[in-house]
């Protein structure tokens, strides 16, 4: 089965008239509103489904545990049949119950049976006493009271009932999810095909790693970074290479690409050499968003032959932050995964800062000894600060006066799926 969802609307990135600087939250709300899955559905064996996105909710075919069983090695009996005493000595029945080897007889009242972890409780057993709390000579078992009925046992379905919804549509499957699906009897999972995301670098001055760079040229830092980010986000990265500041070369490359979405870097402003925005504007489906964000603007969003194109800034620090803040949630929607606001934590700052009003700011940051420190420079050319960082401090759109010890919002890179 291979269902293809409908294409996106040509105006899906249009801004309301009169909008100039777009606050981050408004930009995110618009993406959230207008993007939907563009990937096909397929069934995959649970063994191969790690990291894939569920295309339908998963429903347990079988309860977990399927039968009442013992959580420990020990001795089982029916609590109601042994009365109340400080000490008990119960005769043992022959045989034992082990995981996968059901005991087929019934345990008579006042008797006990040897049970091993995971064994289904035999008829006549509802309570288990732990090995370490017992003495036995093979014919009888002795232990102290009081005995709590049901202790050391698991009820059938106490974890998951048959027919329960165990995971929602849009879930990006974790290793634990695969255990849950397998345990509840699911062998094939309905998932989306991976979102293929192309990465294209632009700019006459940009040279791929490994080639000779003349004075005035810079190495392509964005392409390896963005390709790897896409893989971390759970999608399929596609290297579309590099094109110079030449509109026809750019057009040809975009035309040839067999992908579901494209990230470009560079050329996203409104300058003479900004061919990404110029070309997208030509198709009539560009919005050049000037986002009230540091580091970040400009961000050009558009559709190329129905495929969403995210025109990221050329500056690697800005490209990185825009990828985390905008491209990541947008790509999740395209991939069929739900919207996801990254989890942040209020943590005392080690630093002081006076922040201007009117834009959101993200600082390269990391946690040390329960406090958050920021990179020594906010310079957006400092790629080394990205490597240094383990997360971002998010400062709200309004003005702020931060003193050491004040709580600030820290978002670890892990919250962005990295
Ligand atoms: P642009 O957005 O094209 O105006 O580029 C902004 C800055 O980012 C310029 O200094 C570019 O040289 C730089 N830049 C553009 N693309 C890359 C890239 N792939 N790797 C590193 N720096 C880049
Ligand atoms: Mg450029």
TrEMBL record:
InterPro entries: MoaB/Mog-like_dom_sf (IPR036425), MoaB/Mog_dom (IPR001453), MoCF_biosynth_CS (IPR008284), MoeA-like (IPR038987), MoeA_C_domain_IV (IPR005111), MoeA_C_domain_IV_sf (IPR036688), MoeA_linker/N (IPR005110), MoeA_linker/N_sf (IPR036135). One of its GO terms (cellular component) is cytosol. Its cofactor is Mg(2+). It comes from the Bacteria. It is an enzyme of class 2 (transferase). It holds the Pfam family MoeA_N. SUPFAM superfamilies: MoeA C-terminal domain-like, MoeA N-terminal region -like, Molybdenum cofactor biosynthesis proteins. SMART domains: MoCF_biosynth. GO terms for molecular function: metal ion binding; molybdopterin molybdotransferase activity. Keywords: Magnesium, Metal-binding, Molybdenum, Molybdenum cofactor biosynthesis, Transferase. Pathway: Cofactor biosynthesis; molybdopterin biosynthesis. CDD domains: MoeA. PANTHER family: GEPHYRIN, MOLYBDOPTERIN BIOSYNTHESIS PROTEIN. Belongs to the MoeA family. NCBIfam families: Glp_gephyrin, molyb_syn. This is Molybdopterin molybdenumtransferase. It comes from Mameliella alba. The lineage of its organism: Bacteria, Pseudomonadati, Pseudomonadota, Alphaproteobacteria, Rhodobacterales.
């Amino acid at each position: 089965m291979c269902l293809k969802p409908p294409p996106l609307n040509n105006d899906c990135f249009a801004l309301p008239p009169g909008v100039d600087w777009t606050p981050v939250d408004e930009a995110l709300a618009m993406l959230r509103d207008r993007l939907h899955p563009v990937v096909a559905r397929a069934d995959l064996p649970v063994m191969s489904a790690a990291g894939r996105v569920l295309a339908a909710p998963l429903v347990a075919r079988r309860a977990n545990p399927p039968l009442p069983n013992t959580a420990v090695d020990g001795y089982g009996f029916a609590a109601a049949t042994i009365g109340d005493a400080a000490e008990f000595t119960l005769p043992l029945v022959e045989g034992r119950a082990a995981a996968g080897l059901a005991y087929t007889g019934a345990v008579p009242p006042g008797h006990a049976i040897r049970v091993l972890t995971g064994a289904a409780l035999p008829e006549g057993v509802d309570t288990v006493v732990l090995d370490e709390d017992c003495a036995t000579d093979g014919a009888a078992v002795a232990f102290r009271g009081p005995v709590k009925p049901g202790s050391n046992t698991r009820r059938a379905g106490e974890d998951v009932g048959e027919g329960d919804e165990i995971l929602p549509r849009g879930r990006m499957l974790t290793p634990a999810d695969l255990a849950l699906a397998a345990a509840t009897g699911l062998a094939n999972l309905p998932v989306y095909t991976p979102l293929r995301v192309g990465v294209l670098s632009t700019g006459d001055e940009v040279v791929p790693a490994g080639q000779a760079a003349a004075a005035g040229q810079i190495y392509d830092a964005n392409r390896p970074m963005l390709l790897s980010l896409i893989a971390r986000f759970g999608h399929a990265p596609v290297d579309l290479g590099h094109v110079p500041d030449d509109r026809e070369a750019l057009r040809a490359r975009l035309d040839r690409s067999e992908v579901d979405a494209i990230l470009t870097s560079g050329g996203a402003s409104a300058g003479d050499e900004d061919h990404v925005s110029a070309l997208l504007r030509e198709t009539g489906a560009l919005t050049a968003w000037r986002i009230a964000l540091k580091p970040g603007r400009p961000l050009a969003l558009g559709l190329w032959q129905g495929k969403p194109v995210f025109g990221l800034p050329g500056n690697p620090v800005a490209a990185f932050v825009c990828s985390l803040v905008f491209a990541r949630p947008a790509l999740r929607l395209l991939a069929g995964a739900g919207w996801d606001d990254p989890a942040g934590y209020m943590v005392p700052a080690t630093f002081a800062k006076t922040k201007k009003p009117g834009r959101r700011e993200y600082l390269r940051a990391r946690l040390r000894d329960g406090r958050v420190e920021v990179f020594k420079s906010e310079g957006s050319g400092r790629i080394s600060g990205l490597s240094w960082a383990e997360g971002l401090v998010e400062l709200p759109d309004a003005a702020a006066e931060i003193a050491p010890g004040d709580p600030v919002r820290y978002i670890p890179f892990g919250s962005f799926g990295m």
